[in-house]
Amino acid sequence: MSDSTIVRDEAGLLERIQAPEGAGREIPDAATRDVIGRAPVHTVEDLDAAVARARKAQPGWDALGHEKRTEMLLAAADAIDANAEALARLLSREQGKPLNGPNARFELGACSAWLRTAATTVLEPEVIIDDGEAHAVLHYRAAGVVGAIGPWNWPLMITIWQIGPALRMGNTVVVKPSDYTPLSVLALLAVMNEALPENVLIGISGDGAVGARLAAHPEIDKVMFTGSTATGRKIIEGSAGNLARLTLELGGNDAGIVLPGTDAKAIAEDLFWGAFINTGQTCAALKRLYVHDSIYEEVVEALAEFAVRMPMGNGLDEVNVLGPLQNKAQFDIVSGLVDDARANGGRVVTGGSPASELGELFYPITIVADVVDGVALVDKEQFGPALPVIRYHDVEDAIASANRLDVGLGASVWGDRDEARRVAARIQSGTVWINSHGGVHPMIPFGGVKSSGYGLEFGVEGLKSVAVPQIING
């Protein structure tokens, strides 16, 4: 497919979903700050109407049965594949992530893969007891209407994580994308709706009031949210009135522990992508790295040597694998945390100041050594391209440091596999990776503990989370 055809297809997607000329809200290109298009500005009244349509459509969608829904969802995955390059370009411009590397094209591939897995995963009724006297079977039924509230960092992939299982189980879904990345999400939904019945999947683009209404709406049976812990708490409060079931994937500050005796050069590349995938803007990225004193300088040096070779710039340039921060608020957080770490004795090994020559929101990969627990860059989630590396002397101290914060989305342990597994068992985190960080699989459950949220996604457990259990006893 020629470049001109791809650009034309991207423009065609935009025309299908954006607000008319002179209306809507302008959405900037994350790299250039030029206007990409105009997002619709839906109101609470628009949301109410969308929920009503989804409610009306839900019994018919459920009645189709698993086999027919699977067929339609696989067709929706085919539609994503057919439009993948145009969607990737729109995503790259709106979110900032480059086309190549583990970024925009990678994200579109994940959308298709996760949707296919959700569509074909089997969830059989479970016989609880059948002893000749009692007979009880556990079934999972559709919850009803699901409200899906997504983030701006992986807007398409995480939307699929929410809506794929929900649709598979017979729910209808109303999607509220982030205000920062509405266009790519609405385009994804438009593509999927080519294969789905009307009003089974509806997108609503609005402000915080719309999101708050979605969480509190009396006709919403389940809310799925990925985003900050602060917003997650508001969703919990808002859902109290309707007692909607919740799946919350909230903020994290993932710790990694490098054990003594580990080969620094052998792990440098995986450490780098564990921390800096999507330019660090990932919930389960490695955000604070604890390294044993005996190999501390080797790890810092190996990580820095790999980091400086990774090209950063406009996402549409095929060479780049790192992009800008998505928005000014996140740029200011990262910049402020690095400045504070430097003021508190941190040694900036790479980066350390804005890459203004690349554009307004570019911040280079920044590795800060010689910081300690209590420094803001360690204790607060930076959600960007800055990694503190903390020296430790005893593994017990590293475990205590990993567990000291009120978050627990992911963590990792690096070194001898058997020893790493023993350490991993003592870390308070929903997932602990061994000799890697952040990798997810559509059949392996994923979720957080403590203030990182609750509920599981992916695989059979993900299907259960968007359904309601029913016991047939007798």
Automatic annotation (TrEMBL):
UniProt keyword terms in alphabetical order: Oxidoreductase
Tagged with keyword Oxidoreductase: yes
Start and end residues of each Aldehyde dehydrogenase domain: 29-466
SUPFAM superfamilies noted in UniProt: ALDH-like
UniProt keyword annotation of Oxidoreductase present: yes
Active site: E249
Similarity comment text for this entry: Belongs to the aldehyde dehydrogenase family.
The protein's name in its UniProt record: Aldehyde dehydrogenase family protein
